[in-house]
């Protein structure tokens, strides 16, 4: 089941986010980036 | 039948008395507890959770005074006074029973029949070193039947730890008992006779040696975050954690509500849960929560109005199954800066 992470002004589909978008997210919101990576890596 | 009891023994002043209580008292919500009384003696206590009043020197005080009426039997107003120096700790502390220990070791209980209620509370920033003075007392018309209750039930188990939380959890013989924490302080497992079964600071994993209740005592550091994880069948269906444990995890439990306003909460497979109050973070990934539980959790959190992190993915229902009210609450939380993770 696709997982959505949503916070103020940002809505991310963990399954479909591209590497380019991930790189951009890392620069803008490292905490959220780490959360997305955790889900992408199947750690949660 | 008469209310007037006739005293048959001698009334004495046995030499020299000593004032003072030990600077540590236990308390519990009266309605959570059951007591076995024999006159003014409590011979058995069953409280799912105890809290602690930590004091210094003579900062704790307790006692009773009679309330006399011409048209009613004599009652006793119980009182418990404490001086605390952490803001907000005693706000709303009502209908509790307090256990204090005299210097000679005897335990006394106050409010055991009808509860102690917040009577006065005062904090002034420039007075008394900004400490809070609180008095809990019997409500008018709900006085106790004795000046105090002597406790012969074994309170030593929950009193041994410097700072502790205790829970009574039931298991069926052969069922796995599994607890984890971060290795800082001991978790202790007792039978209800006070015999320690096992203790460890990292994890406990045994098979329940008998069917029935067990007592868990978690020692904790008062100023540092710690995390605990427990599984099993909590007898009360509700859990209240009123102090600053960093995080508490509940795994495959039958609990229905968690009140932990000062702790983060982790949930795995607790399908009966319908109410969770938490500090900042609720990780309910694989919580197996119901749609109605998700609605209530989100709406309750909107009412709190502070930033939070809530994880509702894994085995929880997808957002398409949520109620409109739940979706609206999720949207409101996102607007104030919360991070919500869910299944689409």
**Fraction of residues of chain B in helices?**
under 10%
Strand content of chain A: 15-25%
Q: Element order, helices and strands of chain A?
A: EEHH
Ends of chain B: how far apart?
70 Å
Strand count of chain A: 2
SSE topology string of chain B: EEEEEEEEEEEHEEEEEEEEEEEEEHEHE
Number of strands of chain B: 26
The biggest sheet of chain A, with number of strands, parallel, antiparallel or mixed sense and barrel status, is: 2 strands, antiparallel
Assembly form of the protein: heterodimer
The rounded Rg of chain A comes to 10 Å
Strand percent estimate of chain B? 35-45%
Give the secondary structure arrangement, pairings included:
The complex is a heterodimer of chains A (44) and B (344).
Chain A: E1 3-7, E2 10-13, H1 19-28, H2 30-40
Antiparallel strand pairs in A: 1-2
Helix pairs in contact in A: 1-2
Chain B: E1 24-29, E2 34-38, E3 41-46, E4 51-54, E5 60-69, E6 72-84, E7 96-101, E8 107-110, E9 117-123, E10 132-137, E11 149-151, H1 156-159, E12 164-171, E13 176-181, E14 187-190, E15 196-200, E16 203-207, E17 212-219, E18 227-234, E19 238-240, E20 247-253, E21 257-259, E22 264-268, E23 275-277, E24 281-283, H2 291-304, E25 309-312, H3 324-335, E26 339-343
Helix pairs in contact in B: 2-3
Summarize the structure.
Chain A contains 2 helices and 2 strands. By secondary structure, chain A is an alpha+beta fold. The two termini of chain A are 14 Å apart.
